[in-house]
Each structure stands twice: as structure tokens, then as C-alpha cells.
Amino acid sequence: MGMGRVCGATSKDPKPSSSSVTTSTSLTDTVNGSHQFKITGYSLSKGIGIGKCIASDTFMVGGFEWAIYFYPDGKSVEDNATYVSLFIALASEGTDVRALFELTLLDQSGKEMHKVHSHFGRTLESGPYTLKYRGSMWGYKRFFKRTALEASDFLKDDCLSVHCSIGVVKSRTEGPKLYSITVPSSNIGVHFGRLLESGKGTDVTFEVDGETFSAHKLVLAARSPVFRAQLFGPMKDKNTENIKVEDVGAPAFKALLHFIYWDELPDMEQLTGLNSKWVSTLMAQHLLAAADCYGLERLRLLCEAKLCEGVAINTVATTLALAEQHHCFQLKAVCLKFVSMPENLRAVMQTDGFEYLKESCPSILTELLEYVARVGEHSVIISKHRNEAIFDGSDVNGRRVKQRI
């Protein structure tokens, strides 16, 4: 009888599949924007009435519209018009909009002693401010005592200047990306720049110091409010195809067109054909004046920054005059500080530019003397305590100390 054998195959239990892990990240940050509000005719606004305001134009930040409200007679009846009030208001529909705010009343003397109230750059115990609905405001009923304001450097030529910054808090959740696409930076300036270089489709020419420049009306109007008024406004020039330019030199006008199309400063050395810091500074001076003339604020600021970096003995006086004439407060402060240095003052006074400064901006000499006097007073204090502190030529505010010449 045959014996049968049963063979049984044994196997281990299958391993459980490894669990998949997914991730996501919640990101909270701010969408920032700012607005400058100029209030002219301040004295005429007094008496408007307590609780009545002067409003800025609305401006967009973080998907919401905002406005600045200035109350010349104050917002509260109980203050009896003793204070002016200043607020930022939510001007569009919104619920529980969270934001950081900054209100700055600009010092117009050039001393940079601005009055600043800011949420930015500091820890807030209760977090960002929340505006519940349209019309909600953040600011100060007692922003400034009126008598003090009217005797201060914040008021100049019956004008106040307010700068407002807003950071709207936004949150979003990001999951893992299933793609990796590199998006190149914008090159719209390159395209417009090449359009200018090609000369195709130009419909306006400018005569500047015997040179002719061709351009496109629509491009100029889109970039400059002055060109827009000149070419398309109700008081536009009679001849909008051939325009003679009197107030800007040919090199500066060429640089102006370069910026309008390319949205960047030209290479000053390449533009002038000269490898000289002095020539570059001179070019930046002329270009700053042209930028102010044609309402190109970004170009004006770029030139101001370039001139701040390139302050020198032989050009600082003309740069200081330019800063005064075109209200470049930071550039003016940098120039005053440079001129007041004991190793610079005598040399600057011997330049032709200083003679031009005296003739064109005599009032700036008073400010310069006051600046030098303040620095000189500080040097006397330092000298009395020479054994108690290390003297490095500057005071605690970074101003250079005037020493005996």
C-alpha cells in the first residue's frame, strides 16, 4: 500500500504597506502698500468743524480700498479743537480685516525728525489691529496739538505731508507641489527698450539742443503724467508731432527716454562716453531735475539714491542746491552732513558750486550754519569728557562733530 505524503507550503504574513505621509504649510504674512497725502492750504482748513475731515483719494492695498482722514479741528467735541486728528479708514466692504499700520507726519525741514506711529518692526501684544467693517478706522484723536503743529517744521508753506503704510494680513495653506516650473523675471522693459532702439512706429519727435529724438506717444503718456497732458490733455501742444524741449539737455533727455522704455537707469559712462565719477554725478543731477520735471517719481528716487552714494567735494554744493530745489530731503541731509565735516567744509567753500549755491539757494546757507553750529556745540561737550568716552567724530545721532578749523 503506497504511502502518500501531503506537502504543505508555508509563508509569512505579508508586510503591511508603509503609510504615506502628506504635508501642508500654513503661511501668514502681510501684503504691503503705501500712500502719500499732501494737505495744502492748512490754515484755510481750520474752522471746518469738529468731527469734519479732509480725505485723501482712496488707494488699494491687499485687495481693499483705504483712505487717510485728517481732522483740522479734531474728531472729538470734548477736545474743543485743541488737537488735530489723523486716521486710516477702511474704504471698501470688508469684515474683520486685520492689518498693521504706520502713520508718518513728515518733517519738511530736512532734519528727518518725522513724527511716526507704527505697528511695523515691533511685537504687538494683541496682534494686528482688526477693522470690523467699512468705515472702521485706526489712528489718533489727539495726533498733534494744534498750536505746537503750527509752530513746527511739519508745516511748511501752509502745507502738511502725511505718509501712510499698510500691511494687510493674509493667510494661505500650501500643499506639496506636483510641478517645478521656473518662471523667468519680467522682461517687458527689454521689449519696450528694443522698440525704442528700432525706431519702428514712432509718432513724435523732440528737438533738444540741436539733437532729434523719436518716440511713441502712447508709451510716453503711459509713463509720465506730464507727457500725457502735453500729448493728449485738453491743453495739449498744438504740434504734438514735433516738440521743442527747452528745459532739459540732450544727454539728460536721452537718459530720460531710456528709463521710460527700459525702466532702469542707463549706464552713465556709456551714455556720456567718459569714464569719470564727476561726469556720472553731473549726469545724475541733470536726470534728477528732468525726472521731477516730467513726474517720474521712481527715476527721481533712483537718481537721489545714486547722488547720496556719490557725494564729493567738487559736486556736493550743486547737489545740495538741487536737493533743496526738488525737495529731496534725504539727499539734502546727506549733503549737509558731508559739508559740515571739518575736513570738507573749507574745500567745499572754495568750489564754484558753492558760489552757485549761495546765489540760487541763499536760505540753505542759514541751515548749513545752524547745522555746523550744532555740531560745534557737541564737540565742546565731547572735549570736556575726553577722558570718559572714546571720541570718534560723531554724536549719538550719527551727525559729524564740528572741530576747530
From TrEMBL:
- What is the protein name for this chain? BTB/POZ and MATH domain-containing protein 2-like
Report domain BTB positions: 202-269
Segments carrying the region annotation (Disordered) are 1-27
Q: Which CDD domains does the UniProt entry name for this protein?
A: BACK_AtBPM-like (cd14736), BTB_POZ_BPM_plant (cd18280), MATH (cd00121)
Q: What does this protein do?
A: May act as a substrate-specific adapter of an E3 ubiquitin-protein ligase complex (CUL3-RBX1-BTB) which mediates the ubiquitination and subsequent proteasomal degradation of target proteins.
Q: Where is the composition biased (Low complexity)?
A: 16-27
Give start and end of each MATH domain. 32-166
Species assigned in the record: Stephania cephalantha
Query: What Pfam families does the database record attribute to this sequence?
Result: BACK_BPM_SPOP, BTB, MATH_2
Similarity section: Belongs to the Tdpoz family.
- InterPro entries in UniProt: BACK_BPM_SPOP, BPM1-6, BPM_C, BTB/POZ_dom, MATH/TRAF_dom, SKP1/BTB/POZ_sf, TRAF-like
Q: In which pathway does it act?
A: Protein modification; protein ubiquitination
